[in-house]
Amino acid sequence: MFRRPCIKRSLSLFLALCLAALLSSCTLATPTSSRPATPGDSPASAPVGLQVPVCHLAQCTNFNPVKGTRPFIDTSKNIHSVLVFDYRVKDPTAIANNYDFVWGARQDHMDAYRTANPNIVLSYYMTIHRDDGAFDQSNIGTLAYWQQVHPDWILYKCDQKTPALEYSDKNIPFDITNPAVVQWQIENYVQPASEAGYDALAVDNIDMENIFGACGHFDKQGHWVQLYTGNNNDVHWQTDMANWVVHMQTVVHSLPHPLLLIGNFSTGVVTVHAPTSQTVLAHVDGVLNESSFTHFGNHTLVGSDWLHLVQYIDAVQAMGKPFFIVNQVQKKLAPADTEWIYASYLMCNQRLASINISGYKAYGYSNEFPELKANIGSAKSDMYESQNAYWRDFTGGEVVLNPNNIDTQITTSGSATYVDPYGNKLDHSFTLPAYSARILLRS
Fold first, then answer.
1. How far apart are CA 241 and CA 236, in angstroms?
2. Quick check: pTM over 0.90?
3. For residue 437, what are the β-bridge partners?
4. What is the DSSP letter of 188?
5. pLDDT (tens digit per residue) in 377-431
6. CA-CA to 101 of 20 to 30 Å: which in 54, 70, 258, 417?
């Protein structure tokens, strides 16, 4: 995830046991060129029941883990949105009340947001290990510049020549095991963000997978220092990522104006229950997931993959941490597409989840969909299985979702009548196609 449009991108014992049970069966994905663009033809694995209750505990309804930080609001009623960057927003006052959190808010928008919505949480964007330039993210250094001023900071591939750049980004990657690099990040980004009045640090690219083949750096004498194998799955890379998060959370929490640490966290080939993943989850104050129910815009997440993501989102919220569900899309969305995404959100919102739908690598817009105005109310229970689909009961209706590869026949109970978010009246009995969902609003 990237700012510029031209580039891209205290648990109780009970809760601890629930989290361990959920995460033990859960993996997340990071995009690589070898991943398929569409689901496979084989039948989806049969979903299994959720193992964690709806979170009604205090830490899920009054998120405020650090004294002096702004709490996230209770998102249990209706659908709550997160704005991912705002560089294309012309009037922040007009859209401030549509969002609870802005990932990467422009400094010149902050006063307008605060005036219109005093409860909104605003974050400053930085990457975990790359040069983001000055505080306003201008004056990004070239390779030649960094080779001149700090040649020992640059992280190279194993050929010892090529910087381990991410995607097509030209921002130079740094060795975050170097204390001087971390201190530079604190002085250049973290402390100014605190002094500017931000509520949180939005840290991008906390990746457990060494996606771009980082290998090592040269010391001040010009000798090669190898840190990693260059392979995707490298425990040393994972450990360094986790150690940075642990240290940085301590730093941001101890500032005179403390900040929260919200991480765009991805595990890739590493499981969520791996020790390094667990360390990251324990030391971020919230998680943003850029894959979510559309798998980076490549395909709809279905079957057991869909269920595992729901369980993961539930588990993070059970830790008292907000979860931001970002769904990228690469096509014009039909109502069935957005209804699937928002229904998936409603299945796993446990009072601390917010959602975003954006074009692929096209962040910064305030997007509106009819589902956002749906008065579905608050969940009355957790998700459950019935009629070969998943259901969740709300005070203002029902949500039913079919993550499997076969159609199922649905019949609603009672005499209530329903409409969909677009105002269309729904029959009491209908076919729910494979990989589809309906949001049923009492009329």
1. 9
2. no
3. 401
4. I
5. 999 999 999 999 999 999 999 999 999 999 999 999 888 899 999 999 999 999 9
6. 54
